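Hi all, long-time lurker, first post. I run a small reading group and we've been trying to get comfortable going from sequence to structure in the token notation. Rather than ask abstract questions, I figured I'd post a concrete chain and ask someone more experienced to write out its structure so we can walk through it together at our next meeting. Sequence below, copied exactly:
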Amino acid sequence: MPQQACNTLFMQSQIKELTKQYLSQIIDIRRHLHQNPELSFEEHNTSAYIQKQLSKLNIPFKAGFVKTGIIGYLMGKNPDKRTIALRADMDALPINENSNCEFASKNEGVMHACGHDAHTAALLGAAMILNELKEQWEGTVLLLFQPAEEVFPGGAKLMMDEGCFDGHEPEMIIGQHVLPNMKSGHAGFKSGMYMASGDEVYITVKGKGGHAAMPHTLTDNVLIASHIIVALQQVVSRIVPAQIPTVLSFGKVIAEGATNIIPETVEIAGTLRTMNEEWRARIKEKIYEIATATARAMGADCEIDIKDGYPVVYNNEQVTNQAIAFSNEYLGKDRTELMDIRMTAEDFGYYSQKYPCTFYRFGVAQENGETGSLHTPQFNLNEDSLETAAGLLAYMAYNFMQAD
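-- Answer (accepted) --
Happy to help. Here is the structure in token form:
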């Protein structure tokens, strides 16, 4: 067997052995975080707990980015040779837990229903493993613990705005996320466009209200709002090229009239998702044009407010293809899956717009089928998946650090 193949197998064996050695600690960390969730921008106790774990490992760090964000500096031999970053988000959701697990949330109305507790525990686990092996790799691994993924404008953008990478610019950033419908022990990758941008669209139709039995004396703002919603469906069906995945959906209409009252204002709210940053900007222009023209043609005015959300998550082809190769080595080809695009959004997109990145999934499905869905009170991941999450992340980081 060639020497390189022998070295690869030896390192796989070492990392798998260390992962098993630390697994109970990783699970304990996850359970502590799960019991003590905190909302976006309020992760103070979570941050203090992570800092304590890093201190135990003698890993230097800086804290206080966007109040609670942390970057650990895990240094191997020759720390200046190269730098990569590994990211985990820390925040929980405003949900009352109903998972029946023995370590359920102690904080009423707050729950780790999106797996961020597992992301953080896995990153700390990877740090434990890489710290044990730091004499066998060169460079610096940034351990990026990020607040507020769940709330605009997102902790990723704000941390970068505060200069979190000043003096330690990463060559690449790796992130991972739980996936409830994927088997535990599996990982999934998608090269190129992966997750959509996510903008919020608010339209207020304004006109003359009045008695519903006298429509000729007023502007029927409810009808006008309906026409705007229908007209805007042309954006996806007739304006955006068919090969660009795009969604424009409206989920909220407020018309506070009555059976015989047409209100003076009607509010519409929706979401815009797309996989193309150029068309994202053009779609917003079309929303303004179509909504304004429709309202005016029917005798009313409208105000339009589009709040910029997260950008497209773009997985760098070279980095992602290499990550797939590493996963094939570590987990096996039968446990490494190729995935399709997702129209959900993630603030990891801010990193991917600036740095070569890969953002992948690891399976957390319970064998009994009672995993639940993300962002629901019943979500309860398979803790066996933490062995994959920590071990694969450490293996990929080690190999990226070794690359020529």
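A couple of things your group might point at:
The radius of gyration is 24 Å.
The longest helix spans residues 3-35.
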